[in-house]
Amino acid sequence: MKVVRKNGFTLIEMLLVLMIISVFTALSIPHIEKVAEVKRENYMIEQLTEDILYAQQYAMAHKTAVQVIFDQGQAHYHIIEMGERQRVLIERSLPDKWIFELATLQMPLAFLANGNVNKAGTVFIKNNTRGYKIVFLLGKGRFYVQKM
């Protein structure tokens, strides 16, 4: 004769496990928000970098000057093809509370047909707590982004 045993969890055990899971979830939510904010910031910088590289490549591919205009004290930038068409290639805004601050760079920044910039300089991207510095170098149209 076989003995059939019915093992399972009691209601108290189940409630205890659910309570532990909910406490861990409640503790991790603030950390998830910080991680999401860092991801948005990284995406913003990557997008800006890609847009500037696109402007340089467009200038070289189409043998025309391309202007990159950062709006001082605001959160907008434009990339405009110069020449016969004078059309806007890219127009973007930064996320909330981020602004451009021109340091030594004078607007407009232009990538010439050979890919070089017309002038060197520095632009800051800032919010209340953090900031980035974009430095444009003379020769070969190189630039770099540095966290401050």
UniProtKB/TrEMBL annotation:
Q: Which sequence ranges are marked TM in the entry?
A: 12-32
Keywords tagged on the record: Competence, Membrane, Transmembrane, Transmembrane helix
Mind telling me which GO cellular component terms the entry cites? Answer: cell surface
May I ask which residue range the UniProt record assigns to the signal sequence? Answer: none
Can you cite a GO biological process for this protein?
Answer: establishment of competence for transformation
Protein's UniProt keywords contain DNA repair: no
Localization terms from the record: Cell surface
The identity of this protein, by name, is Competence protein ComGD
